[in-house]
Specification:
Bound molecules: zinc ion
Largest sheet: 8 strands, antiparallel
Helix content: 40-55%
Oligomer: single chain
Low-confidence stretches: 1-16, 530-537
Strand content: 5-15%
Structural class: alpha+beta
Number of strands: 12
Mean pLDDT: 88
Distance between the termini: 71 Å
Shape: globular
Length: 537
């Protein structure tokens, strides 16, 4: 296993006083009885805006004080029409129409219930320092101002939410349609190009480590056929099920997708211009991580780098750093956030999962800021094809909290993590009319987070070429021997023989020719219709 101690000395000695801010968007489903006083989303707001009893940090005789949570004074209906005005000083209860019950959950949804899609938007929290109460509350016993550290605030909010819904006929839960989006920033300072390259570099080089904590159907990959993937699985392969596209593709798009799109583009341009050396280079080196890293680190401007996280659903979304979006009014209607948004995590209301993810990514971003691009690329060079590196090693490298390291160790290495999660989630509330629905939701999660299923999905992604090519030593270590003996993995190695290289190059050439033919047909059709339009002008 990779030992990060030699690399961390520099990062840990750096002062943790630099700004680091965070905000999470928690998507979930809320259910209430249909004769309830409030709708389900209004109930969320009603629950959270009530004062709660907080333990006194000064150990005064009263012990506890009634104080308000940092929740906004406006109801969800206000924010449905004023979403762009959110300055993130308070938690806002919003809606998200992408959150819904799935088809296999609907049969368990009682007629006597109504549900709402909810997006609970956290306020901007400081990662290293306490954040003042937005309502300017003070502790009644000594008048000291109330402040929150991020972990306590998020834990208290979620516990209050769950407590408020712990009644017969009431429920909050995250199902497969929900996401957990995390914004990491530096107040309004934004990130410099090198830090952003380092973050992109980590996610590009170690995509398979991040995939390992996603539910099976969130592990997405390149689905276009413009570029032939570096491996083909023949029908005779029975050891591994072939890759099939998943729903995950709609939620989050990993770094490899953009790299393959960009590769398809450069191959087409080189073919079109008959540029032999560019074409040969693209074929020879294009479909593997070192080239992708080279492309990321060669970017000269933020705009260029943002091209590698182009769609909004990119797992690392840079749209809030893109210069064209980053001036007031530049991003239609909303204030510039200057954050990196991490969108890959599945929806959850589990405090341990949420806090571990926040801690990991804030630490990772700070590490990327404190580490030179030379040092980080040197690390990537030794780790991208290390079959043993896991998210736990990444957590250690970036100096994540012990609880974070323990959490990911448990997720990745404890076979019953998913089962324990299921047992806790299905027994946390007394049985009622909603028990069959929550059991169904949790059963789906259980099957989606089963370790062997996730490993099989990652192997499918690898063998179908969707992580790019790897050295033989890596492939031998991670793939069953019978797969490497046959013809199946013939283009998967970046050390392929000259003969294979030529065969692959001609496949790529053929695909480029087809794509260009199609584009020309399209252009000529469009040209024809333009002529026709001119006739009638
Ligand atoms: Zn007190």
């Amino acid at each position: 296993m990779y030992c990060p101690s030699a690399h961390t000395s520099k990062a840990t000695s750096a002062s943790p006083k630099q700004p680091c801010t965070l905000g999470v968007e928690l998507e979930f489903v809320a259910v209430v009885p249909d004769n309830s006083e409030f709708t389900a989303h209004d109930t969320v707001w009603e629950v959270l805006r009530k004062p709660i009893s907080l333990p006194c940090p000064y150990n005064c005789p009263q012990g506890h004080h009634e104080l308000r949570l940092p929740v906004d004074n406006q109801p969800p209906s206000y924010w449905q029409h004023h979403d762009d005005d959110n300055e993130y000083n308070t938690w806002v209860v919003g809606r998200d129409c992408s959150v819904r019950l799935s088809d296999d959950e609907k049969p368990f949804y009682p007629n006597e219930s109504v549900y709402s899609d909810v997006e609970l938007q956290c306020r901007i929290l400081d990662f290293f320092n306490p954040t003042p109460c937005p309502h300017n509350q003070a502790w009644p016993c000594n008048g000291q101002p109330l402040t929150w550290n991020w972990r306590d605030e998020i834990t208290t909010m979620i516990n209050a939410l769950k407590q408020g819904f712990n009644r017969p006929g009431f429920r909050v839960f995250a199902n497969g349609t929900c996401g957990l989006h995390l914004h990491v920033g530096r107040h309004d300072l934004g990130f410099n190009l090198d830090t952003t390259k380092n973050v992109m570099g980590m996610f590009t080089a170690l995509e398979r480590c991040f995939d390992a904590i996603l539910p099976i159907d969130r592990i997405g990959a390149y689905e276009d056929d413009r570029f032939p993937l570096p491996s083909l699985i023949s029908a005779s392969t029975t050891a591994i099920q072939p890759w099939i596209p998943s729903k995950g593709f709609n939620y989050t798009s990993p770094m490899s997708v953009r790299q393959f799109e960009s590769l398809a583009n450069s191959v087409m341009i080189a073919y079109d211009k008959s540029d032999v050396s560019d074409f040969t280079n693209a074929v020879k080196y294009g479909a593997s991580i070192p080239m992708w890293i080279h492309r990321v680190y060669s970017c000269r401007t933020m705009a260029e780098l943002c091209e590698y996280s182009h769609p909004h659903q990119s797992s690392v979304n840079l749209q809030h750093l893109a210069p064209q979006n980053n001036s007031p009014g530049g991003w239609p209607g909303s204030l510039p956030k200057k954050t990196i948004e991490f969108r890959l995590h599945t929806g959850t209301l589990d405090v341990v999962e949420i806090c571990a993810w926040i801690d990991l990514l804030c630490r990772l971003t700070v590490y990327c800021e404190n580490t030179s691009t030379t040092t980080l690329t040197a690390w990537i060079e030794t780790q991208w094809d290390n079959a043993d590196v896991t998210l736990v090693d990444i957590a250690r490298l970036v100096n994540a909290a012990d609880s974070t390291v323990r959490h990911y160790t448990s997720v990745l290495l404890t076979p019953d993590y998913a089962t324990n999660f299921f047992n806790t989630a299905t027994t946390s509330q007394a049985p009622d009319i909603l028990t069959p629905l929550t059991t169904q939701v949790e059963s789906t999660r259980l099957s989606q987070t089963c370790r062997s299923g996730i490993s099989a999905r990652i192997t499918q992604k690898l063998i179908s070429g969707r992580y790019g090519q790897f050295p033989n030593s890596f492939l031998k270590k991670v793939l069953p021997a019978e797969l490497l003996e046959g013809n199946d993995g013939r283009y998967l190695s970046n050390e392929m023989e000259e003969e294979q290289m030529e065969a692959w190059a001609s496949e790529i050439e053929e695909r480029a020719r087809l794509a260009i033919d199609e584009r020309q047909r399209w252009d000529s059709r469009r040209g024809a219709s333009t002529c026709l339009n001119n006739l009638f002008d």
